[in-house]
Specification:
The structure holds two protein chains of two kinds. By secondary structure, chain A is an alpha/beta fold. Helices cover 45% and strands 10% of the residues of chain A. In chain A, the strands form two sheets. A five-stranded mixed sheet of chain A has the order 2-1-3-8-4, sandwiched between helices. A three-stranded antiparallel sheet of chain A has the order 6-5-7. Chain B has two domains: 27 residues; 230 residues, MetI-like (MetI-like fold, Orthogonal Bundle). Chain B has a two-stranded antiparallel sheet. Classes of the chains: A alpha/beta, B mainly alpha. Chains A and B meet through helix 1, helix 3 and helix 16 of A and helix 2, helix 12 and helix 13 of B.
């Protein structure tokens, strides 16, 4: 067979290749100028990086649509899974291509407000008296290092107990209906023992301190009268009598066979995923989980009551802020943040997603899901201690949470001693504080 | 011959025509041009990050602002870090158990499915399915299978009269569950590569062995296994590298617990770099991981080459 001659000479081929490369380069130029990849578009659209459940995304989209109607500016929601949001935001900040706005929990906020020049000062976008409407501690959380506001505290939430009503009724337990009558630690331990006995040995409780939720253990520290830091965050105070009491009691839930041992701190699954299947029989959970529980826990009645108390009642600071990054669209993004947290939009968002407002002028909410249970969470939220808000929004809280994940896992899974664990936590947090101050 | 030789000697020395050198240079340039896209991709996504990682490993860096050079401080810390040693030991155990299971399991399946069997195509596809489903999906499925309270694994065990296992509360059991999922998801890959290797072995060799009266075991040991040497080498290198990079199934299944029993090197590096923002330290962990994998690969390569020479 005769070799066939290529219709193209090598010179022609290489020429065509070069032309193709130039064309591809030109196309790349077009694509970058049109703002692909979720970056800020030159069409003036804002990019808002966030995570959220179905109800939350629908509520955010409704506000974005209303903003578009009012201001003529499009807000594109860049939805990511929760664990991916901060790594994505970090990478984009490092690449000098941050989203215009992003959603961030209060416990992660400190690591951004402490960074110079990353977040934008939105004070010029605030109407007169706007800040006065917010809970002071939460408004303080969205202040940058120089004391200027960099975003808005969008909503808050907190943990309370959700219980399997037939299982608790089988033990003849009367569940507290007011905060004043919330179970003490000793009472709760007794109740859980009875519930376990009346339900064939099923685990009666699981707390929500898994993975990045390890900080929720600090509610128990606060109930015992303790705190992570002193008032001005200069000293670590976790290794204390209160710390010893809190860790002894929470570790005792595992050793007494009351806490479901499959829900340690390092876990791939969460109690609110298992509760609908009938075990554990009660969980500590946030109000934001009510919509998903309504659709998943349908085979039995369930109710809500307060977290237990010791010398005080206390719960954790949940919830999220929305912050504005320092970029070309900062002005429009600041306007959107202000719009998002105005009284009407905050009310609509909270009602649709069963979370709590951060504005004191947002009242009489008509919650879309389990409005009968929301008063428990609303009342429980009044017990978020000031010390916990200050600690949770500090720049070192990520390291505090990391230390808690390791320390509590050792105590709960391996039975590490209380004193040893607290000393380890004290040392790790002191080191984090020193590094932050260095 | 002598005449031809003399004639050859009488020929004037060959002068390289000027056109040939330029043609060679042109060919070299064309080759370089054709390889350039691949080289550019490797440079941007492989070599540059490697060099940057090596640099960051010598710094204290949060990912923001300027890295602060601090020499080998991160490496000194790593060698005194109990969590590093724990995650290294976990990764080593995971590799030592999961790689042989995947390799020999894949070989067994390939030998089985290389024969004329009814539904052979379907069986091959079924064993390959776990390779193409995402690790996250595999992790979620496995998380429910190994759930101590509801999972089917414990129900099956108790169904046959065996004691239930603490897949989520016992360290060794949790590690075993992750190994099982890793083997399940990689078995199909080893099977397909071995099938390709088996089909490259000439039938004549087997015929000769049959004529010599070799037993099946003898054929496997003395013909199939040695001739599959390059295939085994490739699978081993690939599996060792992937097992050192295991990440997603652990995050989904166990979160690294209980008590760090399933925390592997990559999980630890990710947590350090992206959760704690200690990117210099995480880069140093990456460098250590790179060196370990490179040493293992070189060792395997040397052993493989020695066997070829022998």
């Amino acid at each position: 067979m005769l070799p066939t001659r290529s219709p193209w000479s090598r010179r022609q081929f290489l020429g065509a290749l070069g032309a193709g490369a130039v064309g591809a380069g030109a196309l790349t130029g077009c694509s970058s100028s049109s703002g692909g990849g979720g970056g800020s578009g030159e069409d003036g659209a804002l990019t808002f990086t966030l995570w959220g459940g179905d109800e939350e995304l629908a509520a955010f989209q409704a506000v974005a649509d209303a903003f578009q109607q009012q201001e003529g500016v499009t807000v594109r929601l860049n939805q990511l899974p929760y664990p991916d949001v901060l790594p994505s935001v970090d990478s984009r900040i490092q690449a000098n291509d941050p989203p215009d706005l992003f959603r961030v929990s209060y416990i992660d906020l400190g690591r951004y407000t402490s960074l110079e020049g990353v977040l934008a000062d939105i004070s010029s976008a605030l109407p007169d008296g706007y800040a006065d409407a917010f809970t002071p501690a939460l408004w303080a959380a969205v202040q940058g290092a120089d004391g200027t506001p960099v975003g808005v505290p969008h909503h808050t939430d907190c943990s309370a107990m959700v219980y399997n009503a037939p299982a608790f009724a089988a033990a003849g337990v009367q569940v507290p209906t007011t905060l004043d009558t919330a179970w003490t630690w000793e009472e709760l331990q007794q109740v859980l023992t009875e519930v376990k006995g009346a339900n064939g040995g099923s685990y009666p409780v699981a707390m929500n301190w898994q993975a990045a939720g390890a900080y929720r253990w600090l509610s128990f520290l606060a109930q015992a009268g303790g705190s992570v830091f002193n008032d001005d965050l200069s000293q670590v105070t976790i290794a204390s009598d209160a710390g010893q009491r809190a860790l002894t009691w929470t570790q005792g839930l595992y050793t007494a066979g009351l806490h479901d041992p499959t829900f340690l701190v390092q876990a791939g699954n969460y109690p609110d995923e298992a509760f609908p299947a009938g075990s554990p029989l009660s969980i500590a959970t946030g109000d934001f989980n009510l919509p998903s529980l309504v659709t998943s826990a349908t085979s039995f009645e369930w109710g809500a009551t307060y977290l237990p108390r010791d010398v005080a009642a206390a719960t954790d600071l949940g919830g999220n802020a929305v912050v504005v990054t320092n970029g070309p669209n900062a002005e429009a993004a600041a306007k959107f943040a202000v719009f998002l947290a105005d009284a009407q939009n905050m009310k609509s968002f909270c009602e649709a997603t069963t979370v709590l407002p951060t504005r004191t002028d947002v009242t009489d909410l008509a919650y879309a899901v389990r409005p009968d249970l929301m008063p428990v969470f609303v009342e429980q939220a009044t017990t978020i201690p000031e010390s916990l808000v200050t600690a949770s929004t500090s720049p070192v809280f990520t390291q505090v949470n990391q230390a808690l994940q390791q320390g509590l896992e050792s105590a709960f899974a391996s039975g590490a001693g209380v004193d040893e664990t607290l000393q380890g936590l004290q040392t790790a947090i002191e080191q984090a504080l020193e590094q932050q101050q260095a | 011959m002598a005449v031809v030789g003399a004639a050859a000697l009488e020929q004037p020395p060959r002068v390289q025509r000027p056109g040939r050198r330029s043609r060679r240079r042109g060919e070299a340039l064309a080759g370089l041009g054709l390889a350039a896209p691949a080289l550019a991709v490797f440079a941007v996504f492989m070599f540059v990050p490697l060099v940057m990682t090596a640099y960051y490993s010598l710094t204290r860096y949060t990912g923001f602002g300027d890295p602060r050079f601090q020499g080998v401080e991160n490496f000194t810390q790593i060698f005194g870090d109990p969590l590093f040693w724990r995650s290294l030991a976990n990764t080593a155990v995971f590799t030592v158990v999961s790689v042989p299971l995947s390799v020999f399991g894949g070989l067994g399946l390939a030998l089985l499915l290389n024969r004329a069997l009814p539904g052979r195509g379907l069986l091959r596809a079924l064993f390959y399915v776990p390779v193409v489903i995402s690790a996250v999906s595999a992790g979620i499925i496995a998380r429910w299978i190994f759930n101590e309270n509801f999972g089917i694994a414990n129900r099956l065990l108790s169904g046959v009269g065996l004691p239930e296992v603490g897949w989520q509360t016992s360290g060794p059991a949790a590690l075993a569950s992750v190994v099982a999922v890793q083997v399940w998801t990689s078995l199909g890959f080893a099977m397909v590569v071995y099938l390709a290797g088996l089909q490259g072995i000439s039938g004549e060799v087997y015929e000769a062995a049959a004529l010599d009266g070799a037993s099946r075991w003898r054929v496997l040991r003395s013909i199939t296994w040695p001739l599959l040497g390059p295939t085994t080498f490739f699978i081993l290198v690939y599996m060792v590298i992937t097992s050192f990079q295991v990440f997603d199934i652990v995050v989904i299944m166990t979160g690294g617990g209980p008590a760090n029993a399933t925390t592997f090197l990559v999980n630890y590096a990710y947590d350090t770099g992206f959760q704690q923002r200690r990117q210099g330290y995480a880069a140093a962990l990456g460098v250590v991981l790179f060196v370990i994998v490179m040493v293992l690969t070189l060792l395997q390569w040397r052993v493989g080459r020695r066997r070829e020479v022998a």
